Recover the amino acids of this structure.
């Protein structure tokens, strides 16, 4: 009997994310030495603040403060005859309308949503193309409906000196980011509730490129798993290839692509990345 072995290949994703430690509070101590390398030469904040899924609420809050502090570092100052003014560099928007500045006691949500008209790069629309067609989408930000300018004292300031503040209600989000498709994004749903026509497609969110590694129709709605800083490639069994993500190089060896015994029909694969062997992975799974 003549035995034949069909060449087997896989789709490999190599992630370049850097995970933060258990707490972010100590990060402020190093802010004086910033913004490089977290801010580009053009003065644009180009980094991530990552908080684990089990992170404390305080860590999330401090993570937002860290991101805001980095953005503040990406500023340039100009001295005019009447004093010093500060202009934010990059894709920013002043909360105001022509002839209508933000007034005392006025809710910032009065200015409506922030769109690509205000932030042409950060909120630029794009599209996703699959076998069902091309689907355009827009990005926008809804401002908080409970944030106002007030004159008060800061409870964390021992001097109790009153000042102007933009105060947010802690029980409401500071802003809500949304992606809106002009025509609903379409996909077939397989027997495992995976939206196969969406998986492995690229999407741009807030100026960053992501790959949709998993799209699942759950009882709570559609859940997407996104990966940024990734490279996609096809690699055969028992082969080794080198990939570069950012400024780091990854040696990826395909150890084995097993015959499928998964109920889903997905084929398990084991990789060795820079000398470390992964678990057996099937489509959409990740290994850190």
């Amino acid at each position: 009997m003549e035995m034949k072995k069909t060449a087997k290949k896989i789709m490999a994703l190599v992630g370049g994310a850097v995970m933060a430690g258990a707490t972010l509070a100590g990060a402020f101590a190093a802010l004086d030495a910033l913004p490089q390398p977290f801010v580009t030469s053009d003065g644009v904040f180009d980094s991530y603040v990552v908080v684990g899924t089990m992170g404390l609420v305080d860590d999330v809050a401090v993570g937002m403060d860290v991101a805001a502090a980095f953005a503040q570092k990406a500023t340039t100052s100009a001295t005019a005859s009447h004093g010093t003014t500060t202009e934010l560099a990059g894709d920013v928007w002043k909360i105001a309308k022509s002839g209508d500045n933000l007034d005392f006691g006025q809710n910032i949500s009065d200015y409506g949503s922030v769109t690509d008209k205000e932030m042409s790069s950060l909120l630029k629309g794009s599209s996703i193309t699959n076998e069902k067609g091309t689907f355009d989408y827009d990005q926008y930000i809804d401002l908080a409906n409970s944030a106002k300018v007030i004159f008060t004292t800061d409870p964390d300031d021992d001097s109790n000196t009153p000042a102007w503040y933009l105060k947010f209600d802690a029980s409401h989000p500071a802003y809500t980011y949304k992606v809106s498709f002009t025509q609903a994004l379409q996909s077939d749903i397989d027997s495992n509730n995976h939206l196969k026509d969406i998986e492995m497609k690229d999407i741009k969110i807030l100026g960053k490129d992501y790959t949709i590694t998993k799209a699942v129709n759950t009882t709570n709605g559609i859940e997407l798993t996104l990966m940024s800083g990734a490279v996609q490639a096809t690699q055969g069994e028992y082969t080794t290839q080198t990939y570069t993500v950012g400024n780091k190089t990854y040696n990826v060896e395909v150890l084995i692509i097993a015959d499928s015994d998964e109920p889903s029909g997905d084929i398990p694969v084991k990789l060795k990345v820079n000398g470390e062997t992964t678990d057996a992975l099937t489509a959409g799974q990740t290994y850190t």
User: Anything to note?
Assistant: The first helix runs from residue 57 to 73.
